[in-house]
Amino acid sequence: MEQRCQRVQYSVFECPLDEETLTGLMENRWVKVLNLSEDSLRAYPLTRTAKKQAKIYGSPPLYEPPDYLIF
């Protein structure tokens, strides 16, 4: 997850992904490394309006993806 997302807390990440990319990553990569009897992976969609209404205290700031990613 650290390759595609920004870590916000120990087990909380922000990922600006379209639905197709998110579903592909969850089903083909991330779920495969989880112990589903102990772990969970949750995705909550945020609309542009919801993102603008976010209240953030402390750091890091709300994740804004770079213009490009290098892997």
Summarize the structure.
The chain is an alpha+beta fold and 71 residues long.
Radius of gyration: 13 Å
Query: What structural category characterises the helix and strand content?
Result: alpha+beta
- Strand percentage lies at 5-15%
Please provide the count of β strands.
2
What is the average per-residue confidence, as pLDDT, rounded to a whole number?
A: 82
Given the structure, what is the number of helices? 2
Helix content: 10-25%
The H-and-E topology, N to C, reads as: EEHH
Biggest sheet, strands in spatial order?
1-2
Shape annotation: globular
Largest sheet: 2 strands, antiparallel
Give the termini separation: 13 Å
The low-confidence runs, each spanning 5 or more residues with pLDDT under 50, are none
Please describe the topology of this protein:
Layout: E1 6-9, E2 12-14, H1 19-30, H2 48-52
Antiparallel strand pairs: 1-2
Structure description:
The chain contains two helices and two strands, in the order ββαα. By secondary structure, the protein is of the alpha+beta class. It has a two-stranded antiparallel ribbon. The protein is globular and about 35 Å long.
Main attributes of the structure:
71 residues, alpha+beta, two-stranded antiparallel ribbon, 2 strands
